[in-house]
Design brief:
This protein has helices at 2-14, 51-60, 113-137, 148-161, 177-188, 207-212, 229-232, 248-260, 286-291, 297-303, 320-326, 340-346, 352-366, 373-404, 409-418, 424-437, 442-448, 456-465; strands at residues 20-25, 30-35, 64-72, 84-95, 99-104, 167-170, 194-198, 213-214, 226-227, 237-241, 262-264, 271-273, 277-282, 306-309. It is of the alpha/beta class. The chain has four domains: 2-136, GAF domain (Beta-Lactamase); 145-309, P-loop containing nucleotide triphosphate hydrolases (Rossmann fold); 327-383, no CATH class; 406-465, no CATH class. A hairpin with a 4-residue loop joins β1 and β2.
Amino acid sequence: MIETIKSKLWDILKEKKISLAMIYNREGEVLWYRGRRIRSKWVQEGEEFCKSYILKSMENGEAVDQDNVYITYSGDGLSESAERLRIKSILILPIDRDFFLYVDSGTQMTLSESERVLIRMLGNLLTEAIQKIKRSHDGIGGISGQSEAIKQVRNMALKFSLEEDCVLLLGETGVGKSYMAEIIHNYSGRKGKFIVADTTTINENLFESVIFGHKKGSFTGAIDDRRGLVNEANEGTLLFDEISEVPLSFQSKLLRFIETKKYRVLGDPAEKASDVRILAATNRDLKQLISEKKFREDLFYRLNILVLTIPPLRDRKEDIKVVVNENQRHLKGKEIGEGFWKAILNYHWPGNYRELFAVLKRAGILCESPITGKDIEKMIDKYDMVMNETKQASNIDTAWQELESGKNFWQVVKEPFMNRELNRGEVKSIITRALRQANGSYINALEFLHLDRSEYKKFMKFIHNNRFQFIRVPE
């Protein structure tokens, strides 16, 4: 709805019936505009609009409807004749209680009564759309609760939905970044789909093909044409879930697409365009990755315009009870027993919503009614055990993939082990896999670990010094 209304305002502007349309909030931040260049994203610093009337609307929250208004220009390069410009008509409408719609006709003609009626109608529709969004999403999943922190997140999500720039969603794993991205998409009313690019599952060599698509025969294995995700998300929103995993080789192309909305399908010389809004999410420190030369600084600053940080559950424990009550369906109708709330509220929930919902689901399936605090503690222990096993398997698979790509054992295994990024069990599993492929021969296992045979003594010394000498190859 919101995107449709903005498009209608743009249509009126293109017909030259209005010269400037913009939406700003009570703090004076310009969230969206079309028409004359206004020079700033803040009313207080901007130019080429009727600032005094805007400031008045921000102060008292009332509408403005005036004809024959003077506005004053300032700045370098303006002639004396351009220093003072007469606006024929201006219309400012409050939208909900926090936003305003500004429209003026410029110097050409005054707004007719029918045009004023149409703009007022669009303002009313915009108000209704925002209020409907607030009602429909208040207290759902990832934005539940009454804490000041989560209220601010909800307000920022609504504000950012009115924008068209990228949004960078930050927060720990499980806080609901993907869910919040979808909420922003729904708030915006963009006509296209909400598409997620799960960067952790995309092979680096296929990244450009997945995002931009490819033509049949463009590379070995391209047996058919493939539509890219930017095509799937046209007129919608594309979320890069874990933006830190986008390969360096692709980051410059992503930056160009964000800035121009243009891209090339692999194997097709013709340039294409796609009206896609880009959102990005990560639980990693992008500035640290920039210092390690793993993330482009220019891409970071392009993404870092609108930032939404979702706080972890442990920092807003007053919201946990609300979330649990709204998701009691996971308990399968079983009653809440002694110590339940104490166990729920005292735990720090490092996995945030993802862990909380998993524990509730386990309790609903495995526990008898009523579900007690001891039951919840057991379910938490089981979740931790499963997550540790999953993380260990993931670390082993990642290390093995790096070995297969040509990196050697010292880079992939020894260095992370010494830095405590791999544990003893993970290292044993990696060496055991190499031994299995080498039929139990340590010296032949060097080939699978990308080590030269001259490094055999060094390799065996590492095993002996770190007490891995008891590794046995499974039969």
